[in-house]
Specification:
18% of the residues lie in helices and 29% in strands. It has six helices and 19 strands. The protein has helices spanning 90-99, 120-126, 209-220, 243-249, 257-265, 275-282; strands at 4-8, 11-15, 23-24, 37-40, 43-46, 53-60, 65-72, 79-83, 103-108, 131-135, 144-146, 151-154, 157-163, 172-176, 187-191, 194-195, 198-199, 228-231, 241-242. The chain starts with a strand and ends in a 10-residue tail after the last helix.
């Protein structure tokens, strides 16, 4: 069943239409509006949507995490949302939101992270009326839970929720809308499910290489090939890719399923250094006990 959430004068009410703020990542201090070119080391991409979407890609260097800020700059209230905020950069993000004259309505996560503590709880303690959002399947604490087919609307823009489990049980991908009045090409915020020329590991938190393969191929690779891919992390200096590029060049997910599963089973990755702190905190919206 499709569920919608609405932003209306800074209140959130379930209804037949979901309203979520558009988040835009800022890649190395680049602003992305309609018709403004987005550059990365992998190439140049341009968007042709209306100027409604204000978008920034922000980076936290210790965990190599991208946080994305999206807002409807044409709406009177300029509602905004943050995707995958990090606790260590909350003040930076809130300062930018203030400078841009935005109203933060949602702080949302793509999954329960194991490599950093989410900033959602800290944001909620600093900004009134902000609602935290995460997948219902994550079993984490949040104000709003989303699942496959839900829409998060902010102003006249919205994000579509696509369930992409495999890295963890509760992973989701947020995709900008496909209507004519939504940003084109579309933007997909893939979390750790799909990375640029890679994907998230599948050896903890209920991960499954079989499930991840099916999730990416059915929920992300079926999007238009010009859809821009914005992951939760990058470790090689890249900031954006496209569905078409990953279909052609991703060294893992271009393989058949059995080969992919074999690759994932033999990565021999070390135990995540932050997992014992991050996961318990992120299950409760990033709120840490005073003893931690």
């Amino acid at each position: 069943m499709l569920r919608l959430f609405h932003f209306n004068k800074l209140s959130i009410l379930p209804s037949k239409a979901s309203i979520f703020l558009p988040q835009t990542p800022i890649s190395v201090s680049k602003t992305i509006y309609n018709n403004i070119r987005v550059r990365s080391q992998m190439g140049s991409y341009s968007t042709s949507s209306s100027s409604k979407l204000l978008f920034r890609q922000l980076f936290e260097k210790e965990s190599s995490t991208y946080t994305y800020l999206l807002a409807d700059s044409s709406h009177p209230d300029k509602p905004a949302l943050l995707i995958d905020p990090v606790d260590k950069t909350v003040d930076r993000d809130l300062s930018l939101i203030h400078e841009l004259g935005l109203k933060l309505v949602y702080a949302i996560n793509t999954h329960v992270h194991a490599d950093h503590v989410t900033g959602t709880g800290l944001i909620k303690s600093k900004v009134s009326d902000v609602k935290s959002v995460i997948s219902k399947a994550s079993s984490a604490k949040a104000d709003l839970y989303v699942e496959q087919g839900d829409k998060i609307r902010f102003g006249d823009l919205f994000l579509e929720v696509r369930a992409t489990p495999g890295h963890t049980l509760g992973c989701i991908t947020y995709v900008t809308g496909d209507a004519s009045d939504q940003p084109q090409p579309r933007l997909a915020f893939t979390g750790d499910a799909l990375l640029i020329r890679g994907c998230g590991r599948t050896d903890f938190q209920g991960g499954s290489s079989e499930q991840l393969y099916k999730s990416v191929h059915s929920q992300i690779f079926t999007l238009p090939e010009d859809t821009l891919i914005y992951p939760a992390h990058d470790y090689k200096g890249f900031s954006v890719s496209t569905v078409g590029e990953e279909l052609q060049y991703n060294p893992r997910l271009t393989k058949d399923e059995e080969t992919f599963k074999n690759i994932m089973a033999n990565l021999n990755l070390s135990y995540p250094k932050m997992i014992d702190l991050a996961v318990p905190a992120n299950l409760v919206c990033g709120i840490q006990s005073k003893e931690s």
